[in-house]
Amino acid sequence: MTALGTGYARSRCWLRAHPLALDAALALAVLVMIVAGAFADPHGGPNGPTFGTRAPGGRSVVLMVLGSAALVLRRRRPMAVLAFTGVVTLVELVAGDPPTPVAMSAVIALYTVASRTDRPTTWRVGLLTMTGLTAAAMCFGSGPWYSQENLGIFAWTGIGATAGDAVRSRRAFVDAIRERAERAERTREEEARRRVAEERLRIARDLHDVVAHHIALVNVQAGVAAHVMDKRPDQAKEALAHVRDASRSALNELRATVGLLRQSGDPEAPTEPAPGLAVLDQLLDTFRHAGLPVEVARPDNETAAPLPAAVDLAAYRIIQESLTNVQKHAGPHARAEVSVVRVGPSAEVTVIDNGAGTAGAEGPGAGGGHGLTGMRERVTALGGTLTAGPRYGGGFRVHAILPFTARTGTGEDR
């Protein structure tokens, strides 16, 4: 049974790849049926049709061969084949007595037209074929107009048109389902690519924030250690200890972030939660140890609900990146202030400094970093707004509004 099924599948695939061969086989089969029907006399006896009591004439044989041979081209020229087989059938109905069943070739041609055109065309061509062939059979036949042969022509042409229209509708339905499935597959692939791009952007932001913050602290502390190494070794040791702590913290955060990129079979990622405002004091201490005085204004309300995880992480990263920019660009005597307050359904984060440099500014004068760009992308992803620019009287100000529930549209930077 397996070999039989395999052979059938191969034959079917070969016939689909060679439609002309399939049409030639169909034309041969139709010719055989027409010739067999030409030797049958439907009124030959009391028990039904008899075979061998009549034989087709030479003209009928030629018409049968022509009508069947035209079916070989039914896919390439369906309307032309229908017209040709219709004319051949009309000639046989008018001149043949009794006529041979040449009309079967016209029925097959009508089926092909109906299956390959639209419904209005099927109605017009089908009615014209049915009316023309049935009228010719009724008017020129030797029997009464209501004979079963005449009604049979009407029924067979109607069946051919109906069957062809049903096949066309079925094909259109299957094609529509296949197109929807392909469109859904493309949509899923596009959604997957979009999610991957968003995840990469999020990881890039975290990596930038982690590396920029800790490397800036390491650079400051290393400079301090190098400056006081000879005269004040105790202070140099303390600065090197801060370098060690900052580098260890950077490695831990990098390990946690890069752990998101592990495959399913890799060891489990670190289980430490993402940093947030709960560890803000530790973050500020690292800057204070690096020589940047930082003050924080945060209302102590223990009954307030915690911030959403995404908002909490974004607020932490914004403060981290802003203070890093202050450390790098605001000058040696700069001071910074951090404020985190709830305003209705959102949190407002503000970081200001009184430095003489261009803290947070991006451009050639600031090293061409991507700090502000990363902060804007992070805030925009939550549906919030970010403003950053110099303060009147000196210094720099970063202000972010982070809604607890992401909005449909993203706000523009004011």
Which helices and strands appear, and what pairs or packs with what?
Blueprint: H1 2-17, H2 19-38, E1 40-45, E2 48-51, H3 58-69, H4 78-95, H5 103-116, H6 119-140, H7 148-228, H8 233-258, H9 280-289, E3 294-297, H10 309-329, E4 336-343, E5 346-353, H11 371-381, E6 385-390, E7 396-403
Helix pairs in contact: 2-3, 3-4, 4-5, 4-6, 5-6, 5-7, 6-7, 7-8, 7-10, 7-11, 10-11
Describe the protein in words:
- The chain is an alpha+beta fold and 414 residues long.
- It is 61% helix and 11% strand.
- The chain has helices at residues 2-17, 19-38, 58-69, 78-95, 103-116, 119-140, 148-228, 233-258, 280-289, 309-329, 371-381, and strands spanning 40-45, 48-51, 294-297, 336-343, 346-353, 385-390, 396-403.
- The longest helix has 81 residues, at 148-228.
- The protein is rod-shaped, with a radius of gyration of 43 Å.
- The model is unreliable at 263-270, 359-368 and 408-414 (pLDDT under 50).
